[in-house]
Amino acid sequence: MKRASLETDQCPIARALDAIGDWWSPLIIRDAFDGLRRFSEFEQNLGISKNILAMRLRKLVDDGILETTPAGDGSRHQEYVLTSKGTASFHVIVALRQWGESYFYKKGEVHSVLLDRKTKKPVRKLELRSKDGRLLDPADTVRQMPD
To answer: Does 135 reside within a domain?
Structure first.
């Protein structure tokens, strides 16, 4: 069953989910942040079938999140690299990771950790702040719909 497109929805969350709302796409983006670039690398790391991976990569390229470039080793292969739009999803991927760490692991359960490359220490939890620097929670925000 084909899902309905949300690409014209007035909600930014709906439009973003239209691009990366399946479970494979955020994992492909995560792997791209980790330096994976080739089809075979994504396939091996994710354990995903070739046809599903090909569809997800094509959609990510079509949506401008990844782009293809010739392989850096001069072979006939192509590589997938994050565009500026893809790189801008970093905070989204980190927020999803941190939510997962907080709510989907038992205390002491082993999981991967995102480290600051310079200090080799875990990154701080993301915070949402107002323009004047106040820490915001859901009660401090409201969604405004267009007229």
So the answer is: no
Give the count of domains, the chain.
1
The rounded percent of the chain whose pLDDT value lies above 70 is 98
Q: At 66, list the tokens.
A: 């990844």
Residue at 28: amino acid letter: I
Asked if residues 68 and 80 have their Cβ atoms less than 8 Å apart, the reply is: yes
> How would you label 60-76 residue by residue, b for 16+ Cβ within 10 Å and e otherwise?
beebebbbeeeeeeeee
Do the domain assignments include residue 72? yes
CA distance 134 to 59: 38
**Can you give the pTM of this predicted structure?**
0.89
- Tell me the three state secondary structure of residue 20: helix
Residue 20 counted as domain residue: yes
d(CA 3, CA 91): 26
Cα-trace Rg, the chain: 18
